[in-house]
Amino acid sequence: VISMVMVAVGVYARLLKHAEAAMACLAVDPAILLIVVGILTFLITFCGCVGSLRENICLLKTFSVCLTVVFLLQLAAGVLGFIFSDRARGKVSEIINGAIVHYRDDLDLQNLIDFGQKEFSCCGGVSYKDWSQNMYFNCTAANPSRERCSVPFSCCLHDANQTVVNTMCGHGMQDKGYLEASAFIYTNGCIDKLVNWIHSNLFLLGGITLGLALPQLVGIVLAQLLINQIRDQIKLQLYNQQHRADPWY
């Protein structure tokens, strides 16, 4: 049910977007990620649910194998991310830069970036000047945009007593140096902030990972136990049928 809701929300979000904008940022669209995860989750849970209800060995095997593959992929991703941390950092940087480029093309992506910059008190990937990669915030003289050399309002330092958000607070900040800009906006990039947050919350992330892994392992074990029980029942039925056919029985 949860996976079907995820797919429905993802499809609804995609349908609300303009076709040109949706195709432009397809690779970094949160709605696409929601749809893909929802479909995969539905297929796996469908096999497990129907397989257990109908006692279908084929569906139960599919469920068990899929859960095992997902678990191993998660484990491999964690190990490889830890071993090749520099490459993982480069991949994260590539994703963030791609999101910056399409910031104005996708409202969902825009809200996600703004939320991340506010929560981590950061701006851009490596620094606030990364926003020059966006065609609207580009700092070249040929850029006719009114937002030239600016940064999004989510980069700005906000007063706790401020009730109305000034969406133009980041205007012209890319023209300023780090010290001058730091009085108005966050100058540190989100990549370093994210890495520091991960290092500071290793126990929390470990607990979340364990919480995700345990249900998968339990599902794999229960599926295998049910498969063995079904096979034992089939063997018992065949044994009884053979002995009923025996005239000396």
From TrEMBL:
Domain of life: Eukaryota
One Gene Ontology molecular-function label: enzyme binding
Record GO biological process: pore complex assembly; protein localization to plasma membrane; protein maturation
Keywords: Cell junction, Cell membrane, Cytoplasm, Disulfide bond, Glycoprotein, Membrane, Transmembrane, Transmembrane helix
InterPro entries the record matches: Tetraspanin/Peripherin, Tetraspanin_animals, Tetraspanin_EC2_sf
A GO cellular component annotation in the UniProt record: adherens junction
Keyword Transmembrane helix: yes
Entry membrane topology: Multi-pass membrane protein
Pfam families: Tetraspanin (PF00335)
Record-annotated disulphide pairs: 122-155, 123-139
Transmembrane segments: 31-53, 65-84, 202-227
Protein localization: Cell junction, Adherens junction; Cell membrane; Cytoplasm; Membrane
Family statement drawn from the similarity comment of this UniProt entry: Belongs to the tetraspanin (TM4SF) family.
Protein name listed in UniProt: Tetraspanin
Organism (species): Pachyramphus minor
